[in-house]
Amino acid sequence: MREINPPAELFVQLPVKRHAVEIISRPSVSYWQDAWQRLRQNKVAIVAGSYIFFLTLAALILPEVIHYQYDEQEIWNAHQTPSLSGETAKVVGENHLQFEPKIIEITNEPEGIAGSFDPPVSSPHNLRLVGDPLTVGVVVTWDKMEGAQGYRVHRSRSADTLGLPLEDVSANQLNFFDASALESSANYFYFVTAFNSFGDGPSTKALEVRPIRALTLQDALKINPEAKIGETITTNAHIFGTDYLGRDLLARIMVGARISLFIGFGAPLIYVLVGIIYGSISGYFGGLIDDFMMRITDIVATVPELLVVILLQVVMGSGVVTLLIALVAVAWARSARQIRGEVLRLREMEFVQAALVLGTPFRKIVFRHLLPNVMSTVLVVLTLAVPSAIFTEAFLSFIGLGISPPMASWGTVTKDGAQVFLTYPHELLIPSIMICLTMLAFNLFGDGLRDALDPKLRGVS
Amino acid sequence: MGAFTLYIVATVTFMLMHSVPGDPLRQEKAVSDVVRNNLQVRYGLDKPIFEQYTMYMKNMFIHGDFGISFKQQNRTVNAIIAEHFGPSAILGVLALFGALIVGVGLGIIAALKRNGLQDGFAMMIAVLGVSIPSFVLAYFLQHIFALWLGILPVGGWGGIESAILPAMSLGMIVMASMARLMRSSMLEVVQQDYIKTAKAKGLSRFKIVTKHQIRNALLPVMIYFGPLFAAITTGSFVIESIFGIPGLGQFFVHAVNELDYTVIMGLTVFYAGFSITMILINDLVLAVIDPRIRFSSH
Predict the structure, then answer these.
(1) How many residue pairs from chains A and B have C-beta atoms closer than 8 A?
(2) Residue A299 distance to chain B (closest CA, Å)
């Protein structure tokens, strides 16, 4: 083994840096930075948070840029199913309902076919449309048939069955005007049979008709200011469809989102603030003051919510602000109790005791020691209070105590939709899904926030 | 203390109610002044407000008499409560105990299989449960089970099967929050020293879970039980009206709309009394279950 004898001059004594041991090599992470980092790692919470952000953005912007106002009615366009494109519509004049029966001279009377006691053996020929079939009326005509004492017109939604007879026309009339209101996106089938006193003959082949939307000039001008009678125009698309008054659901839901989010953010913000003040006073002083203040919250919690809401509506008129105040008036007591509990717990902790012993003034104890520590509880209470406020608003509007028409909120839109759920399911489904998604997002975000803010969960996956 | 709270609630409600303009005698058809005066005398509305107040309070607290409804002719408020509290109570009990069993069960499963498939599934149900408003859920349950599958009645009251869907709609949110509460409570308990002790003693896992973990984890869940019971039992008006159940909720909403003084007062005091009693019973039960509460109060 080779012996190494390094010369002593190669060794230099490093200066002793006394402070070096104190240096923290990594940047220090504050409580809030740490919480933010952990929140960022929570994918679900981030998705939920982004949803809330974009919904808020959409609620602010969409009602301004969208083609429809939330209260703009298109009665002719009620219960429209969701679609991405508009439909073609024909502008009709006032006289579109005027109809000329096509009367012919009948020379040889039906009795001419003597000896026959049977119903007609064949069907009328050449059943065809006259003009465009419109949603306000369809005119069909057919060829004259010998031996018919009259014709019976049927309309059905399927090509296989006759459906109910619409009307009998006499033998000298060879056309028929169906003036019922039809749907524009549906197929109808017309049939004509000839009959005599012995019964009905066989029916014609089905005449398939897809009515074109007819608009009066007045309605058409609202969509296209240059519309003229006889022209066709394209109506605007309703992405979410329309409600029973033909109001655009997207516009209504987005205006409703404004109200829901305003109440959802506003009410908890106010009542948590009240709760912080009330709860910290009650919790900090304790004893008789605490007892008395808590008794008041007991009483507030027992007064029925409905009574407060209605009373406020009578006094202040119904509206968003009334609803907001009513929610605050009912819910502040609950949050005050939660925060009092937290303050009560903190007050007994060593650092507060130490501050007291050191003679820290009351104001400083509250603002430097108690409130920052209550903050995480407050934030969680706040995020979880948002969905419950949204729910309460929807609930009150649903039972008719919230927003009054024509203003839209998620509760009123859901209520309108619920009444026609069987025939037009989208009118209930869309607002319900919006409510559920939003509540879900707030709940998931609140959970994520709670996990992120809880120092006990640090390092736990 | 409870009686005092009740008295204050009654007084506040009385004042709130009488500060609303109008009175229960306003009607769609105009009545002549004579008729109106007679009615006012009959119901005591001609007397000064303070006299009305003392009279009402005396009747209520001393005789337990809530008076006669203004709108429903000759029906006493006591009779209304007696007749219609039943459905609300049955519905509430069903909803709450169903929610308790399912919710606590889900919470236990989720906690025992933490971060597993079962946990994810149970918590998904729980978070969906708190996100669906009861009235939306009611419509969907009604359409799925009653109209499409046809296995349960659409509405009405009578027989246990007519109570299932409304109880489900009412209980869902409670079930979901109980599942979440139970899960976090179980996870907290599992870190306690006495669980370690039990393990060190060599107890079987089954015994540790049933005797130590679940029993202790149930306590925080039970705290919410009393208030929830009162809240649910006093009736959700929307659920009752969607399913056409003759419960108390509808009377309250109509009474408030029509300003039917006696019914509002009667039901408010009844609700408040019920809720106070339930919270009291809950506290007593908790003290029996949890020895820590008994000792700390001394």
Answers:
(1) 92
(2) 6
